[in-house]
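An instance as discussed:

___
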Amino acid sequence: MGKINWGRVVVGGLLAGVVLNIVDFVFFGVIMKLAIDAAMQALGKRPGAMDSLVPLFVVLDFVYGIGVLWVYAAIRPRFGAGAKKAVIAGVAVWFFAGLLHSVGGGRWGCSRSRCTRSERSWSW
């Protein structure tokens, strides 16, 4: 088995993190903004209460990106290269990264039973 090129994993992971941050901004900052503000009010918090947690979510997106590239680099020698393997790596990290998402969601009082359906479907 070949060695993992950590430089490429980190650079590719950071690029993936940029894409994830853009997607999160569009979804949570634009599409779901009103629903999230309503959820915050239902939890007894002010709208925009999550704004202070944005740096945490930005960092988590970069961790996700590096994780996806690391999994892909790890499975590539065993299963081969290609888009299908990249999707498998992405889905695997998405599944396991639910733990990181729960850490972030718990910080603002959102448990799986208390979030909006759209937010849950996006993250799980």
Remarks:
- The helical segments are 6-31, 33-42, 54-79, 83-96, 98-107, 117-123.
- Residues 5 and 101 are 27 Å apart (CA to CA).
